Amino acid sequence: MSESLDERARAILLGNDRGGYTVPTAGLYPFQWNWDSAFAAWGFSTFDPDRAWTELETLFAHQWPDGMVPHIVFHRDDEGYFPGPTVWSTGRTPATSGISQPPVAATMARLVLAADPSHRERAAALVPKLLDWHRWWIRARVRDGVACIVHPWESGRDNAFDWDVGMANVDGSDVGPYQRRDTGHVDPSMRPTKAEYDRYLALVQFGRGIGWDQVRLADEGPFLMADPGVAFILIRACEDLAVLAAEVGADPGDAAEMAEGLRAGLDTLWNDARGHWDARDLRTDTFANVLSSGAWLCWLAGAGRPEMEAHLATAWGAVRHGLPTMDPAHPGFDARRYWRGPAWPFYNALVAMGLRDAGKDAEAERLRADTAALIRNGGFNEYFDPVEGTPCGGSDFTWTAAVWLTWAGRER
Ligand code: GLC
């Protein structure tokens, strides 16, 4: 059984390969997405390390001069996607979006190198680009000592409940008419609502209006929230980058210092009243007040706390399949709506990486076995209903196939 699932997973990666980059899934997501690509590279490393490095190299070939690595590279036109290049209007060739996505690439590059240490030179060539990107985060997104996002899409957890508090202050009433494409590919009940979408677009229009000046976007834009997910990922990425650089004899620059500085700023994300890591709206200095997926990444940055272990146990007690992306006891929990409840295999892989490094082997193994069962029973879908185990969202998904090959399908 496992063997044929391995074959299926490889076929998905190869089928989503558009020549040098991989689309997350055909139809719904027809371009190159930043963190999806990093996971794709990890997947490719299990059977074609050369192709794995190409994936990362293609992504970084579209890095902006200021160091930003965009969340989407629109390699070729596709009418089936909205908002496309003309809406973003960033002036890049090929077109890209104007925001970034969680910086997992350094962590994935380290894993790709571990799978086949012979590609030292390609890793070494990537190190300065990764450094530039991480420095961009510090310059353009770290405010109040902690990593922030200027658009919910920058978190990679698009419609998480976390962002509602900040989005409440974004005016979406004036965005004009538009035609969504996502709801033509998958069931609208699984996608963000129209009101959310209006505000997403208002933020894109603001960025366009200031010529995508990334510092102004953070300092003057209508939305700025500190994101525990990106905060933990960036700390981990800086640490992994320092190790990767040392392994290949490249200059690690200030990677270790960046990690240290970011760690010092983490305390402002601890919601003491509720006892968990939490997103914070910097415009109104208000916590999101929700136990959400970003918090599950604390172990990845060595920031686990006993309270978080207790929350993990409670969340696991409430659902039967995988890890929910939002507290199942919260009134906003929705088992099928994207980042407001569903379990995502690739995300589970990231959480499990942290749990394992924190010595929580039993929890990491539970998450792996749960994720493997979801995929075995439901297929390589984008995400799953954690209450019923139903496959949801897009099918034949790249990062689901990737984490099957690297993690979920590999019993220890
Ligand atoms: C959705 C997800 C985002 C992902 C993209 C492509 O927008 O929220 O994290 O990168 O799809 O899979």
Automatic annotation (TrEMBL):
Example of a GO biological process term: oligosaccharide metabolic process
Pfam families: MGH1-like_GH (PF22422)
GO molecular function, one term: Glc3Man9GlcNAc2 oligosaccharide glucosidase activity
InterPro entries tied to this protein: 6-hairpin_glycosidase_sf, 6hp_glycosidase-like_sf, Glycoside_hydrolase_63, MGH1-like_GH
Mannosylglycerate hydrolase MGH1-like glycoside hydrolase domain location: 29-400
Superkingdom to which the source organism belongs: Bacteria
Protein name: Alpha-glucosidase
UniProt organism field: Jannaschia aquimarina
